[in-house]
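Hi Y.,

Following your request, here is the sequence exactly as I used it, all 358 residues.
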Amino acid sequence: MIFIVVGARPNFMKMAPIVLEMKKRGIAHRLVHTGQHYDQSMSAVFLKDLGLPAPDIFLGAGSGTHAEQTARIMTAFEKACQARRPRLVVVGGDVNSSLACALAAAKLGIPVAHVEAGLRSFDRSMPEEVNRVLADHLSRLLFTTEPSGTKNLLKEGLPRSWIHFTGNSMIDSLRTHLKKALSLKPWERFGLAPNGYGLVTLHRPSNVDDRKTCLATGAELKKISREIPLIFPIHPRTRERMAEFRLDMGPKVICAPPLGYLEFLGLMARARAVLTDSGGIQEESTALGVPCVTIRRNTERPVTLTHGTNRLAPPGRISISRALGLAMKSKPPRRAPPLWDGRAARRIVQVIEKCAAL
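Below is the corresponding structure, written out as C-alpha cells. Let me know if you'd prefer a different format.
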C-alpha cells in the first residue's frame, strides 16, 4: 500500500492526477489529508473540484505555529504509518505537511517520494525553502518538474539514480479541468468580461505581515486598479492583516473570499494579467500564456522566467506596476516548458511501479 499525502491547497492539484493514475492502474493506495488546510474554502471544495474521493485518513492537524503544526502532523502521521505500514509515502511541494510526513516516514524506515523536488529560491528566510530542502534529503525518489530541479539536487550530492525528471503534475490538473473551468464563466460573477480584469493573490508573510510593505503593495494595487479592475480572492490570514493595518484599496479592487479550484482556474485563464506571490500560480499562468507578475525578490521556479510569462517585482510600490506593464506587452511563450504536457502523473507512477526497492 502507498500513502499519498495532501494537506494544503497547492498539494491537491499536484497529487490529484497521481491518485487518479494509481486508481486507474489498480495500485493499492490511501489518501492521507493532514488537515493543514481544513475549512471548506481551503480544502473540501478543492477535493470536489479535482474529482478526488474523501480522504481515507484525516489527521486533523489544524493551524498553529510552524513548530506546533509540524509536530502535530508528525505525531499523527507516525501512528497512521505504524498502523498500516505503507511501502511508500508520496509527498508533494513545500508545505509543512510534506516535511512532517517525510520526516516521520523516514524515521520509520519507510521510503519517501517527493513530487516537485529540487526547486530552490536560495532564500532560507522562506519556511517553504527549508521544507523543500529537507524533504528532498529525506526522499529516495525525487520527481523534478523542471531542469533546474535536477541540477540543484545533483549539486547537493543526491544520487542521479534517485532523480527523475517527470514534468509538472499540477499542469496535468490544469489541462484536465480547463474546459470545465471556462464553462463556468466565473468573471460574470464579478460583472466583468474576459481579458477585462487582473487577478491578485497574496499570502506570504514577507508581503502581508509587515505593515509598511503591506500598505505599500496595497497602494500600488489601488493605482493599478484605476487602469484595470482587479479581482482579489483573499486568504484568511491576509484578510486579518488587512483589517489590522486598515488597508483600503478602493472600489476597483474587488475583494472576494477564497475560491474553489475551478472558479479560480477559469478566472486565471481569461485574466489580462495575474499578480501573485504564489509558486503554483507562476506555473499555471505560464501554462496558460497569461502575463504574471510575482511580487517577490526571487523565485524557485526559474523556468517560468525563461520559458514562461513570469516577471519578478520586489514588494512595495512602483516596481509592481512597471513589471506589470512589461509583462502585458510581452508575447506569450511559443512553447510550454519541457514535459509540461499533461502526462507527468503517468511518468511518476511508472517510475514508482518499476522501482525494485519498493
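The longest strand covers residues 112-117.

Thanks again,
Q.
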